[in-house]
Fold these 2 entries.
Entry 1:
Amino acid sequence: MAPQRTGGRGVSAPLEIAVALGARRYPIRIGAGLLDQPASWRDAIGGPQALVVSNAAVAPHYLPRVCAALRDVACATVILPDGEAHKTLDSAVRVFDALAAMPANRDATVIALGGGVIGDIAGFAAACWMRGIACVQVPTTLLAMVDSSVGGKTGVNLPQGKNLIGAFHQPRAVVIDTDTLATLPARELRAGFAEVVKYGAIGDATFFAWLEAHAEALLARDAALLAQAIATSCRHKAAIVARDETEQGERALLNFGHTFGHALETCAGYGTLRHGEAVAIGMCLAARLSAALGRAPAADAERLAALLRRFGLPTEPPAGIAADALLSTMRIDKKNRAGRLRLILWRGVGRAEIADGVDAAAVRDVLG
Ligand code: NAD
Ligand code: GLY
């Protein structure tokens, strides 16, 4: 399952997972050293122009290698400020300004080089520029590799809530160089495991047990295990997106813990909690709520919290965030219908479900 190393400068033949959307499809290519192997992804940039969008934390490590691979393309760059607090319309405008300065035509490609923040902004800018140009996602965080780079959700935050402005815009390709995880700070690696655990929690009890068996080795960045965790996560995401591209149903399950998590991120102040940390807490709250509503065993909620703790993730909301503020922020979540709370709850490890009209008083109780 892990990509095969072929020797040389850490370069390996990529593993390819297809995201099939009816007649359309695009590849997720996963391998160690892919950025040094442009032949394995250069085909995704079709036109003569590209804009690489990155930030000051990522660009010094990886931008020169991406630009070197694009020697035959008119390649511009834009470096955005780092962090969730900058996932804003202002940052998208900076990308539009860079596209205008090129000037970029409809056959230009936007390349998102960074974590989920860069991927979401760059993807959104690509969706809007001239009503939509190609985007290639080059994720450099674990979280972006296993979740945000795949599936075409793009967007920016408002002070009122996360991801309230956005578009579905599928990438032309996702290029995952697992070697980029070597420079990822430990807190960001831990945050990524929240979304990995999510796939086990919502639909794959066997994967959940595999994560229980390997948590410490994964945290220690065992390369083969990490590649396996990334590939399994991408396969799950690709399968769900293929069945429900625009979240008419099943795709909402990927938001297990996210309504709580997004409210926590908004109320704590963007960037205070990492997205993965907020999702970890949110999944625990959703599991506890499911138990309180008699839908799931309380023991499974504790099993989930125990695994997340082993990945160094928080499982309780931070002190100082008012439960009422969280609840009112949860009311402007995109999943709600007719003013009623719509949450992803579960029956236990491996079995998530959509719950409509969830009792606000029960939600308020788990918020403390
Ligand atoms: P992030 O993009 O802020 O990256 C985390 C930190 O790591 C940043 O400081 C970044 O500069 C740094 N970094 C990234 N790669 C690095 C590397 N290889 N070496 C050193 N530093 C590196 O956060 P994230 O956790 O990747 O993404 C979170 C965002 O993704 C949130 O905005 C969330 O809403 C979004 N998201 C979107 C989707 C989707 O489907 N579109 C899914 C999940 C999450
Ligand atoms: N991260 C949730 C989704 O892509 O649907």
Note: Residues 1-9 have pLDDT under 50 and may be disordered.
Entry 2:
Amino acid sequence: MNELQTQIRALAQQKHAIIMAHYYCRPEVQEVADFIGDSLALAQQAQKTDADIIVMCGVHFMAETAAILCPNKKVLIPDPTAGCSLADSCQASDLAAWKAQHPGYKVISYVNTSAAVKALSDIVVTSSNALRVVNSFDSNEHLLFNPDCHLGAYINAKTCRQMELWNGGCHVHSRFSEASVIALKQAHPQAPVLAHPECPQSILDHSDIIGSTQALLNYVREHAEIKEFIIATEPGVIFKMQQAQPSAAFYPVAGEGVGDCNTCEYMRQNTLQKLYSCLANETNIVQVDPLLAQQALQPIQRMLSIS
Ligand code: 13P
Ligand code: SF4
């Protein structure tokens, strides 16, 4: 650990704080975290921690979800401007209008949404539990799914449902380059392609394993005999994959366009310096209006109860 990391750990101990980080965070941030997880695991851990302060190294909706689940704790985020293009792709007013056009439909919202969108939803899902949650609805129930059209299409195909899909998406997963996957497969024919279901069908068509960030990491952990992997999700997760299999090679799929960028700039806004300063000064507190929090809590708890 470097000096700043040591200071962060000392502060966390002194303040009885838990540092949580999503797998897409920078390696040096993951190194100081008490808990690293995907969206579902972060919510579950927030619900059960006895820490006084939660520092959420992730994006805003993750800290907001923790604040909704833990109204009596202080939830901090290193950079409050760390947003999410997917969450931004469906505003509460959009969802309200969509619901009005579909009376009688149940609303399923991905966790990558604002508290206001969750408050208008019947249930929340993450990529880890989406299939299970959707299967918990009666097969003749009419369903609206928002905001990720790719995850929604994947679930429709898997469950033989015809949920109506909002046309939203994550700019990172939507821009993975099909040409890059094809080239990596040609160069490494033994390597399975591991993809997140936020990727479009053009990427999933080339994939061997499709799953949440945690599921992809588990696959690497459970397959010590495989020594090469092609990764079609945010490459921050490769840090943990490499720890799980130090001698394996991981080939991240490139993004399409300028610089072939394939990283989430919002996740990368979590730097050690910002983490230190928000914890030292207890700034960037994430608060949710109590009434909104109460309304958003129910669909989140419904999800957690079947996860
Ligand atoms: P999971 O953490 O559920 O795999 O989702 C990925 C993601 O979009 C995080 O922003
Ligand atoms: Fe949002 Fe995509 Fe970044 Fe995840 S990777 S936080 S879905 S913009």
Note: The mean pLDDT is 97.
